[in-house]
């Protein structure tokens, strides 16, 4: 297959190139004549170089291997998964530097933790009691029915344990930065707030006496949207899938250790995020960017 970036002005040269005879020689001689200094002075026009690409089965095979389109064995694919995930970590870091909403949410969660620790004279890395964060703005069923609906939003930025906060922020950076680059800042903000509010509301209604707090419900909503996005998109998805499975495994493992079941706030937040992710993708309101 021959591809011409531009055609020469001599009909005889075009005919020789199309016939295949002396194509390389014609291109070389024409390039030499066109690029000479005397030709530039005489013609005073822009030079046109001919590029003739000869495709062979071996070259196509090499090109396919570079693009990752060759057929590899399952063992080779498994060995290539971890390097892809490492590259995804670098891509997620670059996405996080441009993800304004994600960084804002991370900053709000950190600021809330340090503000509570400073106001109540607590150690920065120590645990906060449930009764204390309830006074700071956390949620339970009794206060919800008393009309303090604003706690549905404020409770999403309050945590009891510092390790829980760090896990939520790490999951937010890995998944949130990628989804914000796909959905856009406004839709990602709606995804975080709606799924988090849904999870907090269900948690307060399911167990009215317990304190509902933390960003886990919102993180699970982001995970639900990421799962729907992976199912609907046909591009490379192994790195994001690994990050998603890691977040879900750790979160569900913590649920089984702490409550011996999946917390209602977590699975309701996951379902809310999945519904929103489906709505965003079906309406073709995503940016064309490969994750």
Strand content: under 5%
Mean pLDDT: 74
Secondary-structure element order, N to C: HHHHHHHHHHHHHH
Largest sheet: none
Structural class call reads mainly alpha
The helix fraction, in percent, is: 55-70%
- N- and C-termini, Cα separation: 33 Å
Low-confidence stretches: 1-5, 21-28, 33-72
Net shape = globular
- Radius of gyration based on Cα positions: 29 Å
Q: Helix count?
A: 14
The tally of strands reads 0
Summarize the structure.
By secondary structure, the chain is mainly alpha-helical. Helix content is 69%, strand content 0%.
Task: Report on this structure.
The structure is a single chain. The protein is mostly helical and 291 residues long. Helices cover 69% and strands 0% of the residues. The chain has helices spanning 11-19, 23-35, 37-43, 57-67, 74-98, 100-119, 130-136, 141-145, 151-154, 162-183, 185-206, 216-232, 238-258, 264-282. α5 packs across α10. It starts with 10 loop residues before the first helix and ends in a 9-residue tail after the last helix. The model is unreliable at 1-5, 21-28 and 33-72 (pLDDT under 50).
